[in-house]
Structures are given as structure tokens and as C-alpha cells.
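Thread: "does anyone have the structure for this chain?"

Original post by V.I.:
We have the sequence but no experimental structure in hand. Need at least a predicted one for the grant figures.
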Amino acid sequence: MDLVSQLNHIFYPGSVAVIGASSNSRKPGYLCTSNLINDKFQGKIYPVNPSLSELLGLKTFSSILDIPGEVDLAISVVPAEQAVSVLKDCVKKQVKGVIFVSAGFSEVGSEIGSNLQHELKEIADKGGVIIIGPNTMGLINTRVNLNATFSPGLGLSKIGNVSVVSQSGGMCVYLVNALNENNIGVGKVIGLGNRCNLDFDETVEFLALDDDTEVIVLYIEGLNNPGKLMTAALKTVKKKPIIVFKGGRSEESSTATRSHTGSLAGKYEYYKAAFRQSGMILVETLTDLADITKALLLQPPAPGNRLAILSLQAGPGIITADKAREYGVRLSVFSQDTKKRLRENISPLLSIENPVDMAWTGSNIDTSREILCAVFEDENVDAVIVAFISFDLSRELPKALIEVSGTYNKPVIACVGSLGSAEDTIRILEEAGIPTYPFPDRACTGLAGLVKYGEILKEITS
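Reply from O.Q.:
Generated one for you, C-alpha cells below.
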């Protein structure tokens, strides 16, 4: 069975076995079983523990070999010293993938741990089994309510088209929360852990072909073979963007990565160069990651780096222009025709240069529409940011923005402030595919991601 087909069985399993299932509600064996039930996984669930006859209303089995029928995915929570025996049984059962939650392998830095992980890899490779981990949280697929982790509720995260691949299980939770809190849904999330025989390059190759994944997010601490990921990334970014967040950037923190997932972090500058050469977009913070992911998910890449800024209040427009310059984004110089059309709709007391001060025009949909059309139609404009405070006097601007933006293949971002609640305004804009941000600097971060991806596409196709 090829890798893609095998990973499809793992992310869309018809049945899941929990080896080491426990009746103790504080143990991973209980949590993994209860999460599958509570998050409403529709496939078959098989707890495995020779000391139990029943768990949470499910019949338990003494061994995975006693389970009738096929098992697509197994979650093993037994101690490291029992892992080899468990894996051999999974090979006999023809299980497609095994999640080894337990630690105690190469990450501990001992010869015993390293040899144990090497033995697992040899058995798995020979037996045709994919290992997720060891030393991992597991994986989720929100589209089938699969929560194959010990983290309660993770499988009920907001459903969407962003997939996350993380070296750290804990960072899986942080990344999903950062995305969900910014109204970005996730599809597939996997913690690779020690990457025994499933690594970043193979997972990226799978997600590149996954119709439910539009943006790929990676959290990387260290790579044993960066060239493989670079090759996979270069092929993938032609079809969908990859955003990467690197842990272990300093000498002090790189030491911690060795004991965390058994990885050598290496010099951060080398990683930055590798990510850049392979077309991945590197971010420095989780907030930047969420902001760029949202923009790339909802809007097309920018064809250039010339930005037009429209603001109902002068201050946010000025701040947006300052931040855009910091990102290396240029302000568009409007054509004479554009200036003429703007002057016909904007008070002569206000500036029609970039950034444009729209002032009180947001309460008139016809005026708002004409201003937006004038800017979008200017050949000197590659992308647009519209900033406004959501209140009664700006009520028509979002409607005009939704109407106009769909006509042009130029990315647009909204910076929405609020004197109270802007939830309804944000909802209708994002339902229409327009990403929103609460502050000008974050709007510029999202826009910079669109410009960067546009540049990447030009470079790899030229």
C-alpha cells in the first residue's frame, strides 16, 4: 500500500484500538478512549487491556489480535519497554498505523532509548506499519470527529481547511487554539513526536494531495534530513502555501529540543535559509502565524507589493502605512483617473493620496462602492486594506466592500475596530472571504503574507 493510501486509512479509520486502555480517569489510556467516545467518532472503538472486561460501555480485549475484523489505527499508551511487543502484534493484525504516546525512546539521549526506537523502526518498516511518534500526543481529523489523542475536546475544534503538523504535541494544542481563536478552522492535526518512520516531508507530501487542506502549518524543532522536507515543500507550495514556526532558535533552547523530541535543532540561520529556499513562509510568533494563515486561507496571493489603504479615520490609515513600509510593502501611487474619481466622492478638505481618508462616506453605500471601485480598478494597485471602526456611520462600507471585492482578483483585508461589539460585521465579512483584523499592524502582517506567497509563486515558476 502506498503512503498516501495508508495515511488516508490512518486519518479516516474505520476502527481504532486503544492498547493500554485504563479505567483510571487520570491516565492516557482512559483519556484516549473517552475522547474517541465524547468527540463522537463514528467508527469502531476497541479498548485493549487483559485486566478489564468493559470500559465506558465498550467490550475490552486482552490483545489486539483478539479483535474481530480489521483495525486501521492503534493508539498505544503502554510503557516504552512493552512497545516492541505491541508493534509486533500490530504487524500481525495488519494495522495501518500505530500512535505510540509513551516517552522513553531516542529523546532521553540514552543508548537504550535510541536502540529501542531503532528496533521499532525496523519492525515497522518491514511490516508496512506507519508509526506516529513515539513520544507524541497523537492526531485528529475534525471532519470525521477523530480525536486520537489524550487531549479532551481537541477533536471538536472548529472545522476548516488548515492542517497542522507539529513536532510537539503540546504545540499542537497551542497552534489549534491560536487558529480557532482567530476564527480559523482546522482539518487534520498531527504530532510527529520523535518521527520514527513518519517525518515532515512525508506528511507534507500527503497534505499536498489532500483536497480538504488549503494551507499547511508546520512547527519544527529540528530536522535530521532537511533536504527531504525542502524537496517536498518546493513541490507543494506550487499548489498551497506552507507556514513554518521554528522552535529551538537559540543555543539554550536548542538544548531543550534534544530532550524533548530527540532532535538536533541546529543554527537558526541555516533553517531560515532552508525555509526561504524551499518556498516556506517563516513566522516569528503564534499571532503572526494566525494572521498570515487567515489571509492565505481566504484571499488570493498578491500579484505585486503595491498597496492601497482606505480608512474612515485618518489615524488607522497612517499606522497601516507605517507598518506596511516596515514589511517592505510599497504604497501605490494612484493614476490621475483614480484621483479624479476619488475627488468626486470625497470632500476637498480630505486627502485622496494614499492612504485615503474616506471620513464620513461609510454611511452611503453608493459613495463607498464608487471609492472602492476606483481604487481596485487602478493598475497601480496590487492589494487593498480597508480600515474602519464598526458603528452606525460606517454601516454601509462592509456591504460595499463585499460587493466590490468579489469583482476583482486582488486581495483585500479589513481592519475592523469597534466601539462595542463588531462580531456581526466581522462575521459577514469573513463569510464573504474577507479576513478581518482588530489592529492595523496585524492587518499588515496578513497582507505581507499574501505578498510573500505571491513572490514565492513567481520565483518557483520563473
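V.I.: this helps a lot. The domain at 300-461 is CATH 3.40.50.261 (Rossmann fold).
O.Q.: and The chain has three domains: 1-151, 157-298, 300-461.
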